[in-house]
């Protein structure tokens, strides 16, 4: 019962993630569409973003493993997992694309990733999809810093050999990714975040 509850949430988020990709191509504001849809009393409000953690990002695989063992292919469950597992790479690629478009083809070189936990206002980073953004940027040789004052930097370093920064540099970054909406990040607002970035920067809010 607990597994299918998590599967249901996973699929709902996957649907919104897929819609956000579609709306990006159509140049439609995803949040405006969701707000309009939410004006109907029975609409269930979910928002796009990264899906990690020890429940939603993991439990569906227990069910699909059992399902495949008895020769049943769970197509919808696995489709939802594929979309959500691919969101981090999609975000990183989209950031590169937007930056190039707004900077005469110049490549993004310095990025601030805000958040390492798997969800907001929480120090738990199990199965955090921010790791996938980290791997993507590292492979592309993009300079980046990860900032999360809630997560233990010592634990992250011991487990992943990743150094979290204690304070972002000022006027340094080409782009910032608000990966996890911790309250202290929200309180900074766009004005506070812009202090870390160069004059012409991209803020990618997940």
Largest sheet: 4 strands, parallel
The helix/strand order is HHHHHEHEHEHE
Q: Between the first and last Cα atoms, what is the distance in angstroms? A: 30 Å
Strand order of the largest sheet: 2-1-3-4
Shape: globular
| Rg estimate, integer Å | 18 Å
- How many H/I helical runs? 8
Mean pLDDT: 93
Which keywords apply here?
4-stranded parallel beta sheet; 49% helix; 206 residues
Task: Give the topology.
Blueprint: H1 2-26, H2 30-37, H3 59-69, H4 75-85, H5 87-102, E1 110-114, H6 130-139, E2 143-147, H7 153-160, E3 173-178, H8 183-194, E4 197-205
Parallel strand pairs: 1-2, 1-3, 3-4
Q: What does it look like?
A:
The protein is built from eight helices and four strands; from the N terminus they run αααααβαβαβαβ. With 206 residues, the protein is an alpha/beta fold. It has a four-stranded parallel β-sheet, sandwiched between helices. β3, α8 (183-194) and β4 (197-205) form a beta-alpha-beta unit. α1 (2-26) crosses α3 (59-69) and α1 packs across α4. The longest helix has 25 residues, at 2-26. It starts with a helix and ends with a strand.
In short:
By secondary structure, the protein is an alpha/beta fold.
